[in-house]
Design brief:
Elements lengths: L2 E5 L2 E5 L6 E8 L3 H10 L4 E6 L8 E8 L2 E8 L5 H9 L2 E8 L3 H10 L4 E10 L2 E9 L5 E10 L8 E2 L10 E10 L5 H12 L2 E6 L10 E8 L6 E8 L6 H9 L3 E9 L2 H10 L15 H5 L6 H7 L2 E5 L2 E7 L10 E8 L9 H14 L4
Parallel strand pairs: 3-6, 7-10, 12-15, 16-19
Antiparallel strand pairs: 1-2, 3-7, 4-5, 4-11, 5-6, 8-9, 9-10, 12-16, 13-14, 14-15, 17-18, 18-19
The protein binds fe (ii) ion.
Length: 374
């Protein structure tokens, strides 16, 4: 399926699995109408399109929510006898699909399956007056999939079947794009999915953390970050490691009923504004002890943001060779302690905040203890 071109004596493969960008993230949720309200009023997304019974789609309702370049689709099943209903029953609200935009979805699917991916949806072409979209899906960890989306011949609202809603402007909180999506998998499976992303999508392992990097007195995890060739798409994969108490990854796997997306990091260019706005709207973040800020200037050196503001908002800072980053983590956004968000601002740094792991995981453990997960 790959097109070969000869340049000098070197043969260069034009990769049908070259990913243009992350297209959308779809969540299966118990009540998409209420979830949409929360993403709009708490998280600053604008509802832009809808698909459901009123638009001729009988078995599910989906709301497209947008902010910056971020597209979330919130889907709820309308009948109990559907896969989406099973998914919600098993996992609670969670991520079903991390969709990837490609030039040719059928070619991407065929090549992915040839490289060992499990196909979950053969290529389907859907047309309307605005053009044609082709989609196809492959499995990744747990019940999570990647849909390949080809939209170069489509100029309409999101996808055929979706209808743009009346303009409802929502004050944005300044979220710009998805920085990374993290998957939690069972002990011993991390390398399986590292190999999957390397072999099937041609991603590279850019950073690895072992249980010495990511451990507290009680719990531990291991993580490898897989990134696309241009580094724009980043999928860290976590697995639990042995500790004196239950790892936060084990707790997730238990409540989620298997492997799945643990957190999505959303990037902003002004984290002080974003976090202040999110807090005002009721979004809850992990509590970081004030002592974290005592030695911050010594640890990270000069930064643009006033330390007092960071301390007031609970924002963490870490530095690497290329710059620094600011980050903060929400509490889980549903009753099961599963999916949460990271808000991140990169000022040059391309790493993931290794210097914050200890403070962060101690905060997570305090939350775990409150849930009785020891
Ligand atoms: Fe993260």
């Amino acid at each position: 399926m790959a097109t070969a071109v000869i340049e000098g004596s070197r043969e260069i493969q034009k990769d049908p699995l070259a990913i243009n960008h992350l297209d959308y993230v779809e969540f299966y949720v118990g009540n998409a109408r209420q979830a949409a309200y929360w993403y709009q009023h708490a998280f600053g997304f604008t509802p832009t399109a809808y698909r459901g019974p009123e638009t001729g789609h009988r078995d599910a309702a989906s709301y497209l929510m947008e902010q910056g370049a971020i597209r979330f689709v919130l889907t709820t099943p309308l009948y109990s006898s559907s896969f989406a209903a099973e998914h919600v029953h098993r996992h609670g609200d969670g991520v079903r699909d991390i969709a990837l935009c490609v030039d040719d979805a059928a070619a991407a699917y065929c090549e992915a399956v040839r490289r060992g991916a499990k196909g979950v949806r053969e290529p389907v072409s859907v047309e309307n007056a605005d053009g044609r979209i082709v989609t196809a899906g492959i499995a990744t960890y747990g019940d999570t999939i990647h849909t390949f989306v080809e939209r170069k011949k489509y100029h309409g609202t999101f996808m055929p079947g979706f209808v743009a809603g009346p303009p409802r402007w929502t004050p944005s909180v300044g979220l710009e794009c998805v920085d990374h999506c993290v998957g939690n998998v069972h002990l011993g499976n991390m390398c399986t999915y590292v190999d999957f992303y390397a072999t099937v999508l041609g991603f590279r392992n850019v950073i690895s953390f072992d249980d010495k990097d990511i451990s507290t007195e009680y719990s531990a995890l291991m993580s490898k970050v897989m990134a696309s060739g241009d580094g724009v798409i980043k999928f860290p994969i976590n697995e639990p490691a042995q500790g004196r108490k239950k790892s936060q990854i084990d707790e997730y796997l238990e409540y989620y009923g298997g492997a799945g997306v643990q957190h999505i990091a959303l990037a902003t260019n002004d984290i002080l504004h974003t976090v202040r706005s999110l807090r005002q709207r009721g979004v809850e973040f992990l509590d970081i002890p004030k002592t974290y800020y005592d030695d911050l200037p010594r640890r990270v050196g000069e930064i643009h943001e006033p330390v007092a503001d960071l301390a007031q908002l609970g924002i963490l800072v870490d530095r690497d060779e290329e710059g620094y980053l600011l980050q903060i983590f929400t509490k889980p956004v549903q009753d099961r302690p599963t999916v949460f968000y990271e808000i991140i601002q990169r000022r040059g740094a391309r790493s993931f905040g290794k210097g914050n792991f200890k403070a962060l995981f101690e905060a997570l453990e305090r939350e775990q203890a409150r849930r009785g997960n020891l």
